[in-house]
Amino acid sequence: MKIAIVNGSARKGNTNTAINALVSGMAGKHEVDIIEADKLNISGCKGCGVCQCHKGCVAKDDTNATVDRLVNADMIVFATPVYWWGMTAQLKLVIDKCYCKGMQLKGKKAGLITIGGAPTDNVQYELISKQFECMADYLGWDVMFDVAFSANGTGDLAGNTEALSKLENAGKSL
Fold first, then answer.
1. At 154, is the pLDDT very low, low, confident or very high (cuts 50, 70, 90)?
2. Are 13 and 156 spatial neighbours (Cβ–Cβ below 8 Å)?
3. What is the pLDDT of residue 102?
4. Considering the chain, what percentage of its residues have pLDDT values greater than 90?
């Protein structure tokens, strides 16, 4: 299976640790494409609708190449730290630009990893999860996992053996 992982973090901290644990659990069983959202040159969606007529975004940036990577994947995993009760702007840009080929994203497997500084019963995780759930319902995605972890300081997740085990097991189950 081809799995695209969209890393919404600009740092190499807890979100990166979570992605590495998930990939480690896969043990080479799948082709993994990690998309570093902060490294992309993606403009905000203007809602012009031209993409619906011309099979792609008209912006001369990384949009079409990035969305094609998602279209060509069998599964998409979104990983994000919590920024102001939501996903990062970098991840949201990628998601917004999926509009240009949204119908080609139907029926995929999907997963969500959220890392925040607050305890996991905080509303911030629920807000991100609900937004993801709406996208998944609209596109008919089979959500394989939706996990959230509390890790405030850089490296906190690396010391959480229970969280790492949960992520590795999620990777093994794919």
1. confident
2. no
3. 87
4. 86
Q: How far apart are alpha carbons 61 and 58 in whole angstroms?
A: 9
For the chain, domain boundaries: 2-172
pLDDT of residue 49: 86
CB 5 within 8 A of CB 34: yes
Gyration radius of the chain's alpha carbons: 16
Tell me the two tokens of residue 29. 């069983």
What count of Cα atoms within 13 Å lies in the side-chain half-sphere of residue 89? Answer: 6
Q: What is the CATH number of domain 2-172?
A: 3.40.50.360
Beta strands in the chain (DSSP E): 2-7, 31-36, 75-81, 109-116, 142-150
- Which token pair is 31? 């082709």
Core vs surface per residue 27-55: b (16+ CB within 10 A) or e:
eeebebeebebeebebeebeeeeebeeee
Q: What does the pLDDT look like over 16-49, one tens digit per residue?
A: 999 999 999 999 899 999 999 999 999 999 988 8
The two structure tokens encoding residue 42: 């993606």
Residue of 19, 60, 51, 4 lying closest to 164 (CA atoms)? 19
For residue 7 the two structure tokens come to: 């890393």
